[in-house]
Amino acid sequence: MKDHRFAKGRLKSFIYAARGMYKLATTEHSIMLQLVIALLVTAAGFYFNISATEWMVQTMAIGLVLSVEGINTAIEKTTDFIHPDFNKKIGFIKDISAGAVFFAAISAFVTGLIIYYPKFSAIFT
């Protein structure tokens, strides 16, 4: 029986989302790697004392990559469940999904270059 109380429903949604985040972080190697990179970049932000604007952009870039990777993982798991054997159409769908992650990762990388290149170049000049 569905509970229609607003607060209780939102709490359940939050718990399901937190469980999903935990599952992603503990079972998917690509997310694990991206979390390590996110921690390193966050440490670099503290080390270089980046501005509030740089923190906002960096946080959005990290969130974008992790979110799109989560969606990609959901698509891959769904397609594997629906059609576990090799299928060209399923492969096409997976490639498109992985391509979306690649777009996000490239954007995040460029964002990192824009934020950190001047800081690293100041050290080495």
Automatic annotation (TrEMBL):
* Keyword Secreted applies: no
User: Coiled-coil intervals in this record?
Assistant: none
Spans traversing the lipid bilayer: 31-50, 96-117
Pfam families, from UniProt? DAGK_prokar
What membrane topology does this protein have?
Answer: Multi-pass membrane protein
A GO molecular-function annotation: kinase activity
Q: Which named protein is this?
A: Diacylglycerol kinase family protein
Record-linked CDD domains = UDPK_IM_like (cd14265)
Q: Which family does it belong to?
A: Belongs to the bacterial diacylglycerol kinase family.
Organism annotation: Flavobacterium rhizosphaerae
- Domain of life, per UniProt, equals Bacteria
Xref: InterPro entries: DAGK (IPR000829), DAGK_sf (IPR036945), UDPK (IPR033717)
PANTHER family documented for this protein: DIACYLGLYCEROL KINASE
- Specify whether Kinase is a keyword of the entry: yes
EC no. given is 2.7.1.-
> Which of UniProt's keywords are assigned here?
ATP-binding, Cell membrane, Kinase, Lipid biosynthesis, Lipid metabolism, Membrane, Nucleotide-binding, Phospholipid biosynthesis, Phospholipid metabolism, Transferase, Transmembrane, Transmembrane helix
Where in the cell does this protein reside? Cell membrane
